[in-house]
Amino acid sequence: MFTSRVARSLAASSRIRLARTAYAKAPILRAYATVPISESDPDYVTIVEVGPRDGLQNEETIVSADLKVELIEKLARAGLTHIEAGSFVSPKWVPQMEDTIEVINKMERLPGRHYPVLVPNMKGLDKLLETLARHPKSAPSPPPTDEIAIFSAASDVFSKANTNCTVAEGLARLEPVARKALDNNLQVRGAVITCPYSGKVDPKKVKDVTKALLDMGCYEVSLGDTVGTGNPTSIYTMLDAVMGGAYAIPPSKLAAHFHDTFGSGVANILVALSMGIRTVDTAVAGLGGCPYSPGATGNVATEDVMYALRGSQYTYPGDLETIADIGAWISEKLEKENGSRAGKAIQARKKEAALMKERERDGGDVESIAAHEITPLP
C-alpha cells in the first residue's frame, strides 16, 4: 500500500512542491475560459458524462468511431459540459478505445465544452500530445481536448491486477505524466478506484492516494466505488475520513464516481452532495461495468441523477428529456437494455402520450366516417 514513507519521498521532490503550491492557490471553481454563469451557484452540480469512455470500454462488440462521435455530439448538444471522449490505453487491453484519436479528431467540439481523455501512462500522453500538435493553432475549432484523467487504485491487490505494480509504484509513474501534461497546458484530473478483490478499503488509504494525486497537480480527484458495493452509510464513512482529520481534503477538490450494482448509486450521490461535493460522474443509460468484478453493473445513470435532483436545491447542466432520448437511442444501437430507470419511465410516458394522440386522431376519423355514412342522400 501507499506508505507514509513513499508519500514523504514524493512530497519532498521539487516538482511536487511546485504542484502543491499551484494546488493551494487554485480557485474552487474550474479554471476554464468559458464557465456557465450557473456554475457560480454554490449548489450547481457539475456532471461529468463518462458514457462514451467508461461506459463503452467494456462492450464486447466493437463500437464504431462514427457511433461514438455521434453519441458525444448528442450529449454536448443536450447541454452537458464535460464529456469523457476516450482513452489513450493499449489496444491490447482495451480494444474498444483503439480509435480514440479518430474520435476526438472527428467530433464536433462546441465552445464551453470539455472532452477529457484517460491517459494512464507516459506512452499514452505522448501519443495524445502528438495528436494535439497536429491541430493548427489558428484553427477555428477548439483543440481535440484540454484535459486528461489519470487514476490509481487504493489497494496493492487491485493495482497489481490492473497495472502490474503497487500503489506507490503507480503513483511514482504518474507524477511525471501529470507534470508533463501541466507543462503542456492540459488540465489534470485524478481518480481513485476501489478494489473488487480485497473487500472494504481503508478510508485512510483512499485519503493518502487522493492527497498524492492532488499534490501532483490534479485540480480534482474523483473517488470511485467502481464495483458498486457502497451504500449511503459506507460512502459517508469514507468521505468523512477523507474530508476530516489531519490534512483534510476540501469537498471542492473531490468528485463522486459511483456504480449502481446494488441500486444505491443515486442515494450515494445524494450523500456526497449533502457533504459538499459538487461534481459527479455519470453515464447515459447507465452504460458501463467493471471487468474485474463479476456482476458489477454500469455507472449510475445520468438520467437517474438528473431526475433525483429535479425540484431540489441543486442545479445542473443538460436537459433531462433530451438525455433520456439519447439513452434510449444508444441502448437500441448497442442492442442492450436501457440501464436508466428514469430513462425507461420517461420513454414509456412518451410512448403512452403518442398512443393517446393516435387514438384521438383515429377516433375523430371514425366519427367523421360514421357521420358521413348516415347523412341522407339528396
Automatic annotation (TrEMBL):
Domain Pyruvate carboxyltransferase, chain residue ranges per copy: 45-324
EC number(s) given by UniProt: 4.1.3.4
PROSITE patterns found in the cross-reference section: PYR_CT
Pfam families: HMGL-like
Enzyme class: lyase
Disordered: region residues: 357-378
InterPro entries in UniProt: Aldolase_TIM (IPR013785), HMGL (IPR043594), PYR_CT (IPR000891)
Pathway(s) this gene product operates in, as recorded in its UniProt entry: Metabolic intermediate metabolism; (S)-3-hydroxy-3-methylglutaryl-CoA degradation; acetoacetate from (S)-3-hydroxy-3-methylglutaryl-CoA: step 1/1
Reaction equations catalysed: (3S)-3-hydroxy-3-methylglutaryl-CoA = acetoacetate + acetyl-CoA
CDD domains reported for this sequence: DRE_TIM_HMGL
Gene3D superfamilies for the chain: Aldolase class I (3.20.20.70)
Keywords: Lyase, Metal-binding
NCBIfam families: PRK05692.1
PANTHER family (UniProt xref): HYDROXYMETHYLGLUTARYL-COA LYASE (PTHR42738)
Similarity remark: Belongs to the HMG-CoA lyase family.
Protein name: hydroxymethylglutaryl-CoA lyase
Species annotation: Somion occarium
Highest classification ranks of the organism: Eukaryota, Fungi, Dikarya, Basidiomycota, Agaricomycotina
